[in-house]
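Fig. S4 source data, part A: sequence.
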Amino acid sequence: SLWKRFFLQSYSSAIVAIILLIFIFSVFTDAFLTPFNLFNLSRTAAVYAFIGASQLILMVIGDMNLGIGACGALSTVVMGTLITKFGLPILPAVLMAVLVSVLCGLMIGLLVVKMKLNPWIITLAMSFVFNGLAIGYSHGYSYEMPETLTWIGRTKLGIFSFLFILMVVMIVILYVMFRHMKYGRDILAVGGNRTAARLSGINVDWITISCNILSCVFACLAAILWASRTGTASPNTGSDWMMYSIAVCAIGGIPLLGGSFTALGFFCGAWILTMVRNGLTMLNVDVYYEQVFLGIIIFFG
């Protein structure tokens, strides 16, 4: 039956969770479905989607990156100093930040491929390196971003934010890549069975390196969007991103063992994480208990 086919999908529980959360929060608080709150939800969910994408691209091949927050912090600090200290225009500063993230991902990928160590160990070690560079380079200072950048994170299109449009475009690109492009299918094949992928002629080492590069680039983009939303480029950016990136993927039905991707589930995962945090705040739930509710949702998802 139609219902049976729906509940067999990996994203079915995420869709049900969204419906339940909307019902619960709209019943117990009058402000949840207001245009202002929907705008806030849309721009926060967009940033979480980019944070989740930085983990997703590696989870699909069965790996994980524990240094996405540190990479994001280093990238945004580089962008902030180039803009505020050296007077560089927005676009070149953003491109330099992306270049830094590419180098971070390349370094991690080469270490994983050449040293044959567990990615957890390598990315954990590099997270300390990147975080140390971010704090040392900035001396712990945050940099105020100009309006030409904050416009991205604060612009409203209807009841949603401009960031929401960027999130939809990003997820569509991921869907097309995994569904219709050879590169995306190779990534899924590596995540499904590395030995079989290697025997079928796929360059597993290149896939591993490129996925680590993409992971850090997504972390950089998330940091830039975060700076555009908050108005500051801070070395403290990304301190809790590892937990949230895994949560977005897990809630969205992305398996930790790799080999699978669902665009709708991933989209729902970002929204569920955002709605839970936003709704609990509106209900005046103690912020210290927030992670309890997130853990319960991940468990039952």
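Fig. S4 source data, part B ends here. Residues 204-230 form the longest helix (27 residues).
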